[in-house]
Amino acid sequence: MNPPQGTFDAIVVGGGPGGSTAAWRLARSGARVALLDAARFPRVKLCAGWVTPTVWQTLELDPLSYPLTLQAFSSATVELDGDVFETAWPRTASYGIVRREFDHFLLERARHAGATVREGERVRGIARAGELMRVETDAFTLAARILIGAGGHNCPVARALGEISPAEATVVTQESETRVGAERLRSLTRRAGTPELFAEPDFRGYGWYFTKGDYLNLGIGCLGDGRDLHRRCRTMVEHLRADGRLAPDLELEPMRGHAYAIRVEKPRRVAGAGFVLVGDAAGLARAVSGEGIGPAVESGALAAEAALRCLNGTGPKGAAEWYSAEIERRFGSGEPGWMERLAGLLPHAAFERLGRVVCRTRLLRRRLLFEGAFGMG
């Protein structure tokens, strides 16, 4: 590695919601923090993009003061076997955002708080140097007491230090986000502004159609290696074309794919001496829904607290132990819970029947699906 060209209290690798939250909290506490991201912001980031009230609280933001695309909603639907089931709340359940805007907003907030932000810098190497962690890019080498990995599913910190099992549970997705115009979108669906979900017939995934202001986000995700993902995606798009939610002349932005891990088996090592992982880098997406913004922001706040503990005398080992315990307390151990154990015992046909019961039953749909799996409400 090149000689260190800067020493910080903490280095954050990844400028998404988790990394920006960690950097912002550290910078406002007076820590010297550098944030590196391979992209230049604002950058394309596809995501269904619903942000729960709890996330806004963690971010210490009033959603009504957020200056960019914001789609409040108080209902959501799930479509199954041609039937549509709606769940409504007496208050705002969550808010739709556009990740390109949202992520840039949070990154700039971290920068304005005092974080040193370097965009367009891809991490090429990570190594220990005594009590410091060293990070090398093509242009420079930095060092810090603690390293926060927030670079998504393929985060270089996670690859180097996270002890990733090849057997970890993975979800793959195909998504598109297109600027259509709010008026046109209202003409296409009578549920404009409401997340519309589509259960896959085998309950190995789901699709969505979500209009947010001028934007339409649609996509599909499923468990496994994604060998039939393109078929599932084509089927969903054909269905949306047939019922008018995708007009014949509406050209979508190209579908893009990505993957993320869920914390249900063989979870990643989320911390060790001198490092912690947050969000998708730690494999914290919600098991059923794949929702990742909430876990990213929550773990980003925890990562900042772990870094401050490290800097204030607990030391890297103590900070890592505290962080690992907090992640387990809030997100589970990764060992199968009662639902996963039940699903493992049931023949898949029985599991499908159970899924249909949940979708069709008002209370179960609200408690287990929308509030439990997606964090809405």
Could you describe the 3D structure shown?
The chain is an alpha/beta fold. It has 2 domains: 178 residues, FAD/NAD(P)-binding domain (3-Layer(bba) Sandwich); 128 residues, D-Amino Acid Oxidase, Chain A, domain 2 (2-Layer Sandwich), CATH 3.30.9. The chain is built from 10 helices and 18 strands. A hairpin with a 3-residue loop joins strand 10 and strand 11.
Notable characteristics:
single chain, 377 residues, alpha/beta, FAD/NAD(P)-binding domain, D-Amino Acid Oxidase, Chain A, domain 2, 2 domains, eight-stranded mixed β-sheet, seven-stranded mixed β-sheet, 10 helices, 27% strand, globular
> pLDDT average, as an integer?
91
Shape category: globular
So, CATH architecture of the largest domain?
Answer: 3-Layer(bba) Sandwich
CATH superfamily of the largest domain: FAD/NAD(P)-binding domain
The helix-strand sequence is EHEEHEEEEHEEEEHEHEEEHEEEHHHH
CATH class of the largest domain: Alpha Beta
Rg (C-alpha, Å): 21 Å
Uncertain stretches of 5 or more adjacent residues = none
SS-based structural class?
alpha/beta
Number of helices: 10
The number of domains is 2
What proportion strand?
25-35%
**N-end to C-end Cα span:** 49 Å
| Number of beta-strand segments | 18
Helix content: 25-40%
CATH topology of the largest domain: FAD/NAD(P)-binding domain
Largest sheet: 8 strands, mixed
